[in-house]
């Protein structure tokens, strides 16, 4: 028996998000005994959401589908067999492709995780993907010690801003590459305020003496979310036996690896996908520890959310259009405010 209605964004075919997304109203089924009903509050718009709607992402949900990989919601009803969750609890998805761009839906209680009450809604809405990606890439590929350098491109991306802050917390030196722009000083200052040790434009990277001069040790770890020529330039600065971890391809160009890099510098090139890590580690101690650490950093104000802008759900097109822009330069992470529908 249907009891209530919810609004959602829906796509029936893969394609340009602005063209294929439509607002629909759906009935919410009566709650099963092992389900909770979640009213979604905030849901970020991430590049992976856009790529999924375009049909260009490895996860291809069955159509029709509701987009939205992460978000924060409030439990508004609980089934009779639900354990450890109550009405009023704030929850986040416990896995990918959750379909959070909707106002309300029912889920098995094991598919959502309660978040500590001290997390703000914005912090919670962006907890699952970007902070975890930054955390894992810094922990899992190279044993870093205080004073070691990490270099990354996309230094101003949401993931990049979290990498900067975690490096600061863990005493690694972060070297952050960004694209040049008219307001470059403001952006450099912003990233420095987050804890960036060095912020260089792509052009400055080509001629920098930062490592040759001994000011900073050559980086053992490079994080690449741009690929193309940018990543090639970054890789030239890796220390001997250093590792480049690729987690994005925002330039839409392939990653080119110089032969000398492999033969003479013993560089390794690896990839990281948070979705795959989460699938393999859903119940792991590492995952629990990671969420505890991140929540604590937010609580102690040692971590701040990437620059963002809340957009009312009924004005979703602004957020989608901006996140879909071919040449980037968005400036902020858009978050859909599902309460304004
Ligand atoms: P943001 O939207 O916050 O940042 C995007 C970044 O990409 C900015 O630094 C932007 O720079 C740059 N950029 C955008 N378009 C281009 C372009 N055409 N050429 C060069 N640079 C460009 O993104 P997120 O931090 O959320 O994600 C960053 C990347 O990481 C994405 O590719 C995303 O899919 C990926 N990702 C991967 C994960 C994984 O598990 N593998 C997990 C999380 C994210 P500018 O300001 O100059 O435009």
UniProtKB/TrEMBL annotation:
Q: Which reaction does it catalyse?
A: a 2,3-saturated acyl-[ACP] + NADP(+) = a (2E)-enoyl-[ACP] + NADPH + H(+)
Annotated signal peptide: none
Its main subcellular localisation, reduced to a broad class, is mitochondrion
> One of this protein's GO BP terms?
fatty acid biosynthetic process
Q: Name its cellular compartments.
A: Mitochondrion
Molecular function, one GO term = enoyl-[acyl-carrier-protein] reductase (NADPH) activity
What keywords appear on the UniProt entry? Fatty acid biosynthesis, Fatty acid metabolism, Lipid biosynthesis, Lipid metabolism, Mitochondrion, NADP, Oxidoreductase, Transit peptide
Q: Name a single GO cellular component.
A: mitochondrion
Pfam families per UniProt: ADH_N, ADH_zinc_N
Q: What is this protein called?
A: Enoyl-[acyl-carrier-protein] reductase, mitochondrial
What species does this protein belong to?
A: Harpegnathos saltator
């Amino acid at each position: 028996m249907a009891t209530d209605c919810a609004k959602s964004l829906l796509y029936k075919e893969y394609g340009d998000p602005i063209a294929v997304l439509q607002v629909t109203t759906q009935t919410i089924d009566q709650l099963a005994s092992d389900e909770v009903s979640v009213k979604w509050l905030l849901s970020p718009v991430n590049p992976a959401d856009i790529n999924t709607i375009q049909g260009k992402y490895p996860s291809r949900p069955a159509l029709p589908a509701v987009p939205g990989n992460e978000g924060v919601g409030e439990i508004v009803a609980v089934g009779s067999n639900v354990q450890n969750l109550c009405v009023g609890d704030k929850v986040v998805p416990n896995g990918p492709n959750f379909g959070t761009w909707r106002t309300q839906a029912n889920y098995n209680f094991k598919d959502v995780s309660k978040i500590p009450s001290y997390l703000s809604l914005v912090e919670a809405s962006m907890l699952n993907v970007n902070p975890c990606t930054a955390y894992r890439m810094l922990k899992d590929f190279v044993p870093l010690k205080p004073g070691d350098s990490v270099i990354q491109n996309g230094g101003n991306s949401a993931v990049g801003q979290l990498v900067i802050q975690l490096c600061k917390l863990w005493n690694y030196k972060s070297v952050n590459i960004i694209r040049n722009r008219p307001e470059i000083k403001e952006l450099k200052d912003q990233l420095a305020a987050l804890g960036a040790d060095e912020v260089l434009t792509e052009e400055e990277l080509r001629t920098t003496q930062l490592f040759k001069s001994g000011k900073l040790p050559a980086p053992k770890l490079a994080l690449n979310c741009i690929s193309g020529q940018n990543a090639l330039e970054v890789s030239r600065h890796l220390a001997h036996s250093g590792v480049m971890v690729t987690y994005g391809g925002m330039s839409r160009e392939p990653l080119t690896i110089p032969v000398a890099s492999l033969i003479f510098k013993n560089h390794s090139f690896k990839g990281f996908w948070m979705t795959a890590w989460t699938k393999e580690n859903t119940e792991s101690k590492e995952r629990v520890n990671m969420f505890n650490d991140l929540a604590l950093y937010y609580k102690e104000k040692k971590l701040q959310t990437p620059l963002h802008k809340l957009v009312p759900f009924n004005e979703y097109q602004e957020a989608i259009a901006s996140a879909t822009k071919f040449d980037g330069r968005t400036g902020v992470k858009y978050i859909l405010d599902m309460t304004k529908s």
